[in-house]
Amino acid sequence: MQIRDQHRAICAPRPKSYAALMEMYEHNYMRIRLLCGDVRSINDEVISTPPKGMPVHLRVLDQAAHTTTILLTYQFTQGKKEQRPDLRVRIYHDSRQAEVISRKCQLTGKNVAAWEAKIDSSLLCRWRLNRFLYKWTAYLLRQGHVFTS
Predict the structure, then answer these.
(1) What H or E segment, with its residue span, contains residue 5?
(2) Cβ proximity of 148 and 37 under 8 Å
(3) Count H helices, E strands: the chain?
(4) DSSP helix, strand, coil percent of the chain (3-state; round to 5)
(5) Could you give the CA distance from residue 83 to residue 87 in angstroms, rounded to a whole number?
(6) Cα atoms found within 13 Å of the Cα of residue 109, Cβ hemisphere only
(7) Which secondary structure element, helix H or strand E, spans residue 147, and what is its range?
(8) What is the side-by-side order of every strand in the sheet holding 111-113?
(9) pLDDT tens digits, the chain, 149 residues: what are they?
(10) C-alpha separations of 138 from 8, 28, 29, 112, 118 in Å
């Protein structure tokens, strides 16, 4: 992906291998643990509201012996549920990794799974989705978000 400037092109970082992607999953797992401790202790939905930030919702979608699937999102309006970015994240407790498995597309309103991307290679698509989670969780930590039930 290139962003054109008037005088130069800036290249966004790209993954070099699946090993680098797995490392990103590990970093995402560590940041989610910093935000909510052991996610297996959350039963349904938790809202984090820091003093100077928007509320972020964490909802448990599925819990199994070795995985938990969560939804992370902002809720912008009270009446109708307008949520963005709506990231579905699968947490692998045994390997200590967290992977974005889909997100809701702003333009179409449809869920986009990383393995269903038609334009990007699977590796690049997964890298982009998980890099977003990596940056967003860092932002949430800086704002003081904490998810506890």
Answers:
(1) none
(2) yes
(3) 2, 8
(4) 30, 30, 35
(5) 10
(6) 2
(7) none
(8) 45-48, 56-63, 67-75, 83-92, 97-104, 111-113
(9) 444 444 455 555 567 788 889 999 999 999 999 999 999 999 899 999 998 888 999 999 999 999 999 999 987 666 555 556 789 999 999 999 999 998 654 444 455 554 454 545 677 878 888 999 999 999 999 999 999 86
(10) 28, 9, 12, 23, 29
The DSSP-derived string for the chain is: -EEE-SS-EEEPP---SHHHHHHHHHHHHHHHHHHHS-GGG--SEEEE--TTS--EEEEEEEE-SSEEEEEEEEE--SSS--EEEEEEEEEETTTTEEEEEEEE-TTT--EEEGGG-SSS-HHHHHHHHHHHHHHHHHHHHHHT-----
Q: Do you know the residue count of the chain? A: 149
pTM above 0.90, yes or no: no
Among 40, 23, 75, 25, residue whose Cα is nearest residue 147: 40
**Sign of the alpha-carbon dihedral angle for 142, 110, 125, 20:** positive
